[in-house]
Design a protein that fits this description.
Shape: flat
Radius of gyration: 22 Å
Strand order of the largest sheet: 3-4-5
Number of strands: 5
Order of helices and strands: HEEHEEEHHHHH
Number of domains: 2
Length: 242
């Protein structure tokens, strides 16, 4: 599909970029930066004036190699022609002391959108919110081992010969399951392990409920769904003390 109209409109939006004022201040490191709200407001005005809309069409939480991230699917649309352009990217989620998983995800969603809009409009460096480039990391020391709060037990593997769990259905038993493909080119094994570990990471009920919603959206076939539901139930009982 041609995107000539969309490209022309994006060129117009980029040509209109002047800059975004630094309206917030990091009181610890003593420097000013552009807040996410200001970036959203400026980018929305530039894009809409050129007949474009930008949005996050969806996202999901991931956990791989000890690193938590969100995978975002973004869509840029030209209103006059209906031409669209999709892009997908991952952005890190950093839970820390005083910042549980649900808050870390919220922060990552805001910051990732700001970075994507800045890149889309080719805004000058230094105008984005609290840049990693400007951060003072001279005293940072990489951990020698996996942090305690990220070392998770791997999800159980499902083996039809040795596992006590329900054997994995075959195409002969249920052809519909084999035809249902997981998102992002992943395998159901990988997705199940990711989400199993993410449930383990949840430290409060809101973040656990968010994970339950994600598991439902992904549409796991059996036996993965039963394993994840069982693990979800155990985690909920642990958090509620029941």
């Amino acid at each position: 599909m041609t995107t000539e109209n969309l490209d022309t409109a994006l060129l117009k939006a980029q040509a209109s970029v002047i800059g975004v004022s630094k309206d917030a201040k990091n009181t610890f490191h003593k420097y000013e930066y552009t807040s996410c709200e200001s970036m959203f407001r400026e980018a929305r005005g530039l894009l809409n004036s050129a007949g474009l809309t930008a949005r996050r069409a969806g996202w999901r939480l991931r956990f791989k190699h000890g690193v938590c991230s969100i995978r975002c699917r973004m869509i840029l649309t030209h209103g006059g022609s209906g031409q669209i352009r999709e892009s997908t990217f991952d952005f890190p989620v950093i839970p820390d002391k005083g910042r549980p998983l649900d808050k870390a995800v919220s922060a990552a969603l805001s910051t990732s959108l700001s970075y994507w809009l800045r890149d889309l409009l080719c805004m000058d460096r230094g105008l984005e919110p609290e840049t990693v480039d400007n951060r003072d990391d001279r005293n940072f020391v990489p951990p020698k081992s996996t942090p305690k709060n990220t070392k998770r037990k791997a999800a159980p593997k499902v083996d039809s010969k040795t596992s006590k769990e329900k054997p994995k259905p075959t195409s002969e038993e249920n052809p519909k399951i084999e035809k249902r493909s997981p998102p992002d080119g992943s395998s159901w094994d990988e997705l199940a392990e990711e989400n199993y570990n993410l449930v383990t990471m949840c430290e409060n009920i809101p973040s656990l409920e968010d994970m339950g919603n994600q598991i439902g959206r992904l549409g796991f076939p059996e036996p993965y769904l039963s394993i994840l539901r069982k693990h979800f139930g155990k985690k909920m009982a642990e958090l509620t003390g029941k």
